[in-house]
Hints:
The chain is α+β, with helices and mostly antiparallel strands. The chain has helices at about 5-15, 20-55, 85-95, 130, 145-150, 160-165, 210-220, 235-250, 265-310, 310-320, 325-360, 370-395, 400-405, and strands at about 60-65, 70, 75, 100-115, 115-125, 135-140, 155, 175-180, 180-190, 205-210, 225-230, 260-265. The chain has two domains: about 5-50 and about 270-405, no CATH class; about 80-260, no CATH class.
Amino acid sequence: xxxxxxxxxxxxxxxxxxxxxxxxxxxxxxxxxxxxxxxxxxxxxxxxxxxxxxxxxxxxxxxxxxxxxxxxxxxxxxxxxxxxxxxxxxxxxxxxxxxxxxxxxxxxxxxxxxxxxxxxxxxxxxxxxxxxxxxxxxxxxxxxxxxxxxxxxxxxxxxxxxxxxxxxxxxxxxxxxxxxxxxxxxxxxxxxxxxxxxxxxxxxxxxxxxxxxxxxxxxxxxxxxxxxxxxxxxxxxxxxxxxxxxxxxxxxxxxxxxxxxxxxxxxxxxxxxxxxxxxxxxxxxxxxxxxxxxxxxxxxxxxxxxxxxxxxxxxxxxxxxxxxxxxxxxxxxxxxxxxxxxxxxxxxxxxxxxxxxxxxxxxxxxxxxxxxxxxxxxxxxxxxxxxxxxxxxxxxxxxxxxxxxx
Length: 406
């Protein structure tokens, strides 16, 4: 018997008991739909986190001043004063895996414009900072190297600061007061949102020339951090090692002494977030997969009932020449067809549920082609696995006993 004829007979057999076939497929439909939706939620969350990390900068490393121990008291991050602008020049010059570097220091201050005021972070840096952070402007532009050289009173502001100081007027060209100093706003940065690495609002900041902050506000000649961009993500690990070796040599740190700085590689953060998302996605898919197992057991149960109900039919088929292989193939195809129909409907349910969750709950969901293809393969595998025993039982029936069965 050819495959097409066997398939037609299988469809007729399933259509004979529409309600029973539908209820049997329901477990597969729910299982496949749940797996697709859960995997979509996990992959969507991973994509969102990776996008947030990428927003921090291109292949970025964060070099910060380190801790120091004074009288048994660990003073924490930023306590050392050994990072200087000469270190930045040396990193760009001698670390071949580095594409660019920007020095920086930071403080906080109250900012005033007319009758409005806002407390925010003030970051002093150089123009390379915007390129390393891949941070474009929604209006205006950044300051220049001449502004850094001349310690000019110019500032680029984040979206949060703009909303709180310039809610009803254009910010670029206006003069704000930081402490007692007037600053001209030259640009407004595109909103980046919350930082997953530092757990802070990236847009709640004002960025000014490094020399302006050091000479006119803090009076501190050292740096609190250096933003570094590696030439590639894979090369960021080589850049990290080169920077550590260079700074230890420049700061004359002996072999047995700890670093007076810290180098953080954001690629590590991205990999860690990706692994956590994979574990969570696997957990969600495993929980949803339990319903697939229940659906498979339902298929086996119904196929065993079908074998019992159709014992006489099986005897007739064998009596007119059907082989054990023909009978086994017939019942196996019926189980696979039931699983595939349930899988197709489950895919539709899963995609629909994902879109519904995304629109109502606002969760980021990514339904990938690989998840859909995997669901189809699993549905077929369930049909084969749980249909094999009933098919084998049908094929092993004695034809004479089957013909006598009532």
